[in-house]
Design goal:
The protein is mainly alpha-helical. It has a domain of 75 residues. The protein has 5 helices and no strands.
Length: 111
């Protein structure tokens, strides 16, 4: 008798679950905010800083954590410095010091 009652409870519980699933409106997925990666955030952030665009600076800063943004900006600076040093045929240290107006920047060697 206990088994029969247990099975009946299970049957009616399952039946109620199916009925409520049919009556419930379909779940509408919420649109997810676009995901931005560290390097995209860094590129937008640095570009906005160069253009003095505070609105874009704030937007890019909100895409990733401050630590991740700092990492991305650092990586962008390193890559840009290396590219510029190769283009100028100078050492990265010389280019960096020259860009910052620090003494000790080596002039480019004449070709």
């Amino acid at each position: 008798m206990v088994r029969v009652l247990s099975r009946l409870r299970t049957f009616f519980a399952a039946r109620a679950a199916v009925r409520s699933a049919r009556l419930a409106p379909p779940a509408v997925p919420r649109p997810r905010a676009p995901q931005h990666n560290i390097f995209e955030a860094a590129a937008v952030y640095v570009t906005a800083c160069a253009e003095d665009d505070q609105e874009r600076i704030d937007e890019a800063a909100g895409w990733v954590s401050p630590e991740a943004l700092m990492f991305g900006v650092n990586e962008l600076a390193c890559r840009a410095l290396i590219a510029l040093a190769r283009e100028r045929d100078e050492s990265p240290q010389s280019v960096a010091r020259g860009l910052l107006g620090l003494p000790g920047a080596e002039p480019a060697e004449p070709n």
